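Annotated sample (chain length 529).
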Amino acid sequence: MQSIATDTYDFEDLITGGYAYVDKTDMLWKLANGKDGKLFFISRPRRFGKSLMLSTFKCLFEGKKKLFKGLKIERKWDWSKTYPVIDLNMRSEAAQSLPGLEKNLWGISRRIARDYGLKVEWRDCGDCGKAFSETLAALAKKHGPFVLLIDEYDVPLQKFLLAGKMGAARAMLHDFYGGIKDNVGSIRFMMMTGVSKFTKLSVFSALNNLTDLTMDRPEFAGMLGYTRKEIETTFARQLGAFARKLRCTRKDAVKRLLAWYDSYRFSPYSNVKVLNPVSVGQALPSGILTDYWSKTGVPTLVVERLQAGGKVPSDLDEVATTPGDLDVCDANDLPWIPLLYQSGYLTIKKVVWTDSPNGRYVSRLVLGVPNFEVRENLKSNFWRTIMHMDETCFTALVDVAKRQIADGNVDALTNETLFSLYAALPATWRVKDEAEAKRYFLMFMKLLDATVHVEQTSARGYADAIVETKKGVYVFEFKFNRSAKAAIRQIREKGYADAYKADKRPVTLIGINFSAKKRNIDEPLIEAL
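Output written by the structure step:
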């Protein structure tokens, strides 16, 4: 049984190492043959195989035919032609200071000149962008058309997002990537990847013939990530072993795998959905379904933008937007919806088509959290970041609350644990109304393995929250700067608990009032129905 690589991003190492490989080279051939353009960009979340794809292109253009034996592209490609390949991993060029970034960008030109024996004096170069332009020109003059592969083009800019130096870093990268424009005629093929699409960088404005594969080319929607069919064929033996470890049928094993890692949909014009390849690659051999993705990076920026938008993860089940809104990500303010979508925390759940005299078009998209892994990732990282609690303390608080709700100890849950939760709110985050105060509670309850109904409909209104466990039903009503007694009175007057009168489980009413002055909840009022 072949091993599944999860930390190998080099195509040659993967093939020679005997790892299992999902063959997508037919898609790569459609891009590399030059019949449909030569300058491409694709944005995908981290750990979706972008680096491996670029490494595959590198081996292809360098003519390493033996590595492609038996793959779909082997008999289609002209192996007699090879090209110089400039492969830049911009993560390696990121720096903590502007002088450091400039030094690294200059270093790229120097390395290219050294590796290809170029004599470039750069006497008239006032910036790293002009130096890059002249270096590429010298390369083309000596060696002919070349291939340019740029991985994670946006990482150097991300380093300055929270440092207050965005403008200067953006200008520097604008000049550097602008150096590509002068050499378009000498480029045989270019592929650029990233997580965010910063549309105001010159790489998008100057290269107006850059083909964006991110959303608008449905035939490439499954180029990165694994489809269900690919898992069931390429990883058939591994899937069988996975099912045995879970002690379930193969069908049930697939169902569980999909629930945890599937449902990333990257194009509104294609129904293709893919699974996170790194998570699948770790889950199948281990037989353990858990959050692998968060271990590859804590989404601090995502959480902070989510907070700035006044949102918590429980608000993300149905997010309305348009294709145009998702395609724009201004590096100056990073709107939270395109950021979460491009980062993989939201995906397309529903597409709304509209008829017009000019034909049907996609007028609206409904986004949601892709799968269980991402949902767990968001929940835990959101609270740890926002509440400024370390993982041990936060986990302990959740564990205590889980036992309390399971045992029906709602008194301790509200008077002790919930009180501690609100006490941990940072002073910089003002709870300004009932809706915001309620969000904290609803988010926390969703971590407790309980069934939570938000704004449950009754004949005369909506209950703020109804929580069901095996031992009981708990009807919550929130007030803001009023009283817990008023909350209980509303539950009874509006009949929020009436639907559960015939339930064999005991029904408990809980009134909670949040005091803005105290920045915490008052003493809750708890009554039986």
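Annotation: Residues 98-115 form the longest helix (18 residues).
Annotation: The domain at 11-220 is CATH 3.40.50.300 (Rossmann fold).
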